[in-house]
Amino acid sequence: MPPNIYEVARKAGVSIATVSRVLNDTGPVSPATRERVLAAMQALGYRPSALGRALAGKRREAIGLVFPDLAGPYHAGVISGIEDLAMREHQALLILGTHAREQAEELVRELASRVDGLVITGRTLSDQAVAELWQEGIRIVLLARPKIGEIPCVQSENVEPARRLAGSLLDRGLQPLFLGDPEASPDVAERWRGFLEAHRERGRSALPPIPTDLRQEGGYRAGLALLRGEPRPRALFCANDETALGVYQAAAQLGLRIPEELAVSGWDDIPQAAYAVPPLTTVCQPIFELGFEAGRMLVELIQGHPVQDLCLPSEVVWRGST
Amino acid sequence: MPPNIYEVARKAGVSIATVSRVLNDTGPVSPATRERVLAAMQALGYRPSALGRALAGKRREAIGLVFPDLAGPYHAGVISGIEDLAMREHQALLILGTHAREQAEELVRELASRVDGLVITGRTLSDQAVAELWQEGIRIVLLARPKIGEIPCVQSENVEPARRLAGSLLDRGLQPLFLGDPEASPDVAERWRGFLEAHRERGRSALPPIPTDLRQEGGYRAGLALLRGEPRPRALFCANDETALGVYQAAAQLGLRIPEELAVSGWDDIPQAAYAVPPLTTVCQPIFELGFEAGRMLVELIQGHPVQDLCLPSEVVWRGST
DNA sequence: TTGTATGCGTTATCAG
DNA sequence: CTGATAACGCATACAA
Question: What is the tens place of the pLDDT at every residue in A117-150?
């Protein structure tokens, strides 16, 4: 139904080659014919087919984003960032949640066939599977996961801020408990590492981590159990803000005051963090930029430019909860 | 680089037509040759190209989602829902944020050329632009926006729950103030309508709405201004939960107790709502299902099946904030 | 039951 | 400067 390149060519009295030339500004075209072609395109409301173009050239003009799942403010922020970049670069954005499915690799391959490159995040595919895709020539940028071979990656600081935050709590005479599962994501694993380092530097030993999922309910449940136990912890170092806000709820239910009776810290600095009562001490991570930069790096890669790994700065934001 | 249908055909000693037949299960193939073709595909790791397939047939096997912007838990939830359905139906999912850009219509057309159909939400394109796309044969499902011509739509209840919620506040002797901009989205407009109806039914007049954006900061700012003024409102009916949580923050800062000195209600029932202190009275809207059902309806439409408009139930969830 | 040939909408490589 | 024409990877009438 929509007009194709032949109709434009016919209307302008030229060949499709010429139309293609003015369209992509490739090769010489006399001003006069260029004008006629442009007019014909305008008149017909011609829009080149992304499919035909992709099939002929090798550019799909689309990028893919692979997530473990799409819930929560963190993912939403990253999607926002990469979507922004995609629009600026005139790339379509395809997204896929693997949801710990068995077919994950199959789905990612399917996605890969539709795009010029992939941004792959945290716990989605195994390192081996990712390396395999890369070997096959699929352009990939890793987001918030450790380097695999030569594959470029972008992440934000985890170890150092965690070390500082935990260290600061220790120096105040508190014995923080780590709420989060280092196995859950590479990010959490690094935060746990920084947490450990802070202890080691001070010749102290850390308590084992309390595995929770990264949602508010996980923090709530774990918080309730811990705060009811003996000895009652005086400080909780949560793997992300949602967990910390769950702890807030548990503390409120038990009548414990923050920060007087319980210090709490989170991670991410989601919008809620600043508005919580009391405002949550957390680590501000540039979530939007993470997505944006991963996208930018991927586009560079696709264009054949050299790219460098990127580690965006995160910083501790001290607020009323500690 | 990846093997194509010709290589499979050659390896199996058949024609591409036969390969295509076993691939799509169209037309008769002898068990023996089918077996050989399958083996060849297996051996080569053949994956049909989505592009070639789309260009030849008319199916893109992809659907598009058009949002005003992608921030916040509401959008994230809807995306989750439609992503889930897309995976089940083996459809790729493309997403686009219009961000009130001028080029919006252009971008949507571009997106449309890559997919079999579009889910278009709230304030993205003008009704006229949407109607135009529909006329051109593009399959569309409207999400959270009023009906346009014959275009199928899915939304959740707004007027009735708003009427009940506001009515209940009125019956307790409170004079609620509406926090939100009816112009901001069709949903908010309907909530405002229900709010008005509750007043009319009781022969009372409503105070004019206080326009705020739908983020927490908007609620915080507006809340601060209102709660400092005279006479100080005793009840705030917020257009969504984020706004309400912003009000929480303003109230905390001013030392006002909820619900004793200020009743607050939200909308959406985002995860935070139940865990806020005190738990937020709100209207539970099936956000995930909204996305899921819109996707399902779109797939039905694409397959040529008849579809019916859908209005999902929302219900008031009374909690501690009122 | 299987193969041939054509079309889908572009880009790109040649000749003119 | 311009025009044929061959890919690109697949589906599908039409023949055999």
Answer: 999 998 899 999 999 999 989 999 999 999 999 9
- Residue B207 DSSP symbol: P
Give helix B104-112 / helix B127-135 axis angle, nearest 10°. Answer: 30
What pLDDT is recorded for position B173?
A: 95
Q: Count other C-beta atoms under 10 Å from residue B48's C-beta.
A: 18
Give mean pLDDT, residues A193-213. Answer: 97
pLDDT at B271 (0 to 100): 83
Cross-chain Cβ contact A93/B94 below 8 Å: yes
Q: Which nucleotide is nearest to B46 (CA to C1')?
A: D9
Specify whether the CB–CB gap between B141 and B297 falls below 8 A. yes
pLDDT greater than 80 at residue B58: no
CA distance B83 to A157: 30
Q: Which residues of A touch B137 (CB under 8 A)?
A: 1
Select the residue from A51, A66, A138, A242 to test the B interface by mutation, using most B Cβ atoms within 10 A: A51
Task: With beta carbons under 8 A apart, name residues in chain B contacting A242.
Answer: 271
Q: How far apart are CA B125 and CA B67, in angstroms?
A: 9
Q: Are A99 and A70 in contact (CB under 8 A)?
A: no
Mutation site for A-interface testing, chosen from B5, B63, B78, B272 by largest number of A Cβ within 10 Å: B272
